[in-house]
Automatic annotation (TrEMBL):
Highest rank taxon of the organism: Eukaryota
Organism: Apatococcus lobatus
Enzyme class: oxidoreductase
Binding site for substrate: R130, R136, N169, R200
Assigned protein family: Belongs to the LDH/MDH superfamily. MDH type 2 family.
TM region positions: 12-32
Protein name: Malate dehydrogenase
């Protein structure tokens, strides 16, 4: 009680001393900002390849506040190619019909300049599907040409400090291409999605132990977003004890678990005759939300980031690491013990990425 009285008399004295109206104004501004959330300007979010199946699920999640929180309004910039104009416009109509209070506006366009202008978050889902007769070199050139063009538009028209996540495969190498073609965007601002793999690993551990997924912590996906990725539980815990002690089946963890997570994408395709879309969209929201708002205390997450040489991963590769995020920045978790088995698997997936980077380098030099 006396605290409240002191505060009141302080406010009163303050009013007298500082002149009634100015101080009253300041008091109300301060009072109101503590009560109601100040109305923040909307943030522009780009989704490329928006007419595709990930874009369909993702744009709705973004409109529901899953990307930047329930008090942040957004303007969606949806980009796709000319041949996808009709479904792209259809998506816009459906978003309007969803009557989402956080969704201030929707811009559906096939013009990369318009799509990139003023965006603070760029989610790169656009990609060219692989056809049976294509050689890897040709596909790299097609993917490369998309990512070099988009890099140029982002560099020129996006907000300074824009955060980029590449989803389209080969996600790690597309991120490297984007970064090299947009040298003025800080390397730390360009990432690729491995959160889906991370979430798959959490899901498998939780299912095995029959516990809620949020009490499973600190699993890691190392490397490429492909079947050579290494899902690592050695530093993880479940319900406060190590995952290895909780599961007590090293054979399952070292073999079946690893291959379930590595092959999960293929299992989804087999079941749906379509690749994962809902879970991919959901993990994009997790990736960006944790990056912008911070990882929950006591947890790390996996993100594909451009290597600074940590854990002996060649510098400049876009490689999935364990990271924590705070104040809009991410940092690789340092100092984890890596045993010989893990080392081997981490090196195998790094070699795959180096090979792919050489292919990308050849393409970039041919420009
Ligand atoms: N990293 C991951 O975890 C992860 C998970 C799932 C899927 N993916 C990848 O995400 C990508 C998209 O998947 P999807 O299922 O939505 O595919 P999709 O084929 O349904 O959609 C891709 C969209 O990209 C568009 N596109 C092609 N070139 C473009 C360009 N130059 N500019 C703008 N848009 C362009 C296409 O028109 C299409 O609408 C694929 O490459 C897929 O392999 C990655
Ligand atoms: C190019 O992109 C497509 C689809 O986005 C992907 O399936 C293919 O594997 C990519 N190319 C290479 C060289 O991996
Ligand atoms: C991205 O870029 C801006 C400056 O251009 C910076 O403020 C921001 O922290 C950067 N880093 C990350 C990791 O997002
Ligand atoms: C790395 O992973 C991507 C995504 O799954 C895949 O397209 C690519 O072929 C992989 N790289 C190599 C060299 O196998
Ligand atoms: C699976 O998808 C392919 C390519 O989109 C299609 O040609 C085929 O008919 C589909 N198969 C089934 C069983 O639906
Ligand atoms: C999980 O990671 C976070 C972030 O690095 C750390 O603070 C926490 O101690 C870790 N938990 C365990 C059980 O190792």
């Amino acid at each position: 009680m006396s605290g409240t009285n002191n505060a009141r008399s302080f406010q009163f004295a303050h009013l007298l001393a500082a002149g009634a109206f100015g101080a009253l104004g300041a008091f109300f501004t301060c009072y109101l900002s503590k009560r109601a959330q100040p109305v923040r300007p909307p943030i522009r979010v780009l989704i490329t390849g928006a007419a595709g199946q990930i874009g369909y699920a993702l744009s709705s999640l973004v409109g529901h506040g899953e990307l930047l929180g329930k008090s942040q309004r957004v303007i969606l910039h949806l980009l796709d190619v000319e041949t996808a104009t009709e479904p792209l416009n259809g998506l816009k109509l459906e978003l309007i019909d969803s009557a989402l209070p956080l969704l201030t506006d929707v811009i559906a366009t096939t013009n990369p300049t318009e799509a990139c202008t003023g965006v603070s978050i760029a989610i790169m889902v656009g990609g060219f599907p692989r056809k049976a007769h294509m050689e890897r070199k040709d596909i790299m050139a097609m993917n490369g040409s998309i990512y070099s063009k988009h890099a140029y538009a982002l560099e020129k028209y996006a907000c300074k400090g824009c955060k980029v996540v590449v989803v389209a495969n080969p996600a790690n190498t597309n991120a490297v291409i984007l970064s090299q073609c947009a040298p003025s965007i800080p390397r730390k601002n360009i990432t690729c999605l491995t959160r889906l793999d991370h979430n798959r690993a959490l899901g498998q551990v939780a299912a095995k132990l029959n516990i809620p997924v949020n009490v499973v912590k600190n699993v890691t996906i190392w490397g490429n977003h492909s079947s050579t990725q290494y899902p690592d539980v050695n530093h993880g815990c479940a319900n406060g004890i190590t995952i290895r002690n909780a599961i007590r089946d090293d054979n399952w963890l070292d073999n079946e678990f690893v291959s379930i997570v590595q092959q999960r994408g293929a299992a989804i395709i087999k079941a749906r005759n379509l690749s994962s879309a809902l879970s991919a969209a959901s993990s994009v929201c997790d990736h960006i939300r944790d990056w912008v708002l911070g990882t929950p205390p006591g947890h790390w997450v996996s993100m594909g980031v451009i290597s600074d040489g940590s854990y002996g991963v060649p510098e400049g590769l876009c490689y999935s690491f364990p990271v924590t995020c705070k104040d809009g920045d991410w940092n690789i978790v340092q100092g984890l013990d890596i045993d010989a088995r893990s080392r081997q698997k981490m090196d195998d997936t790094a070699r795959e990425l180096e090979e792919e980077r050489r292919l990308a380098q050849d393409y970039l030099q041919s420009l």
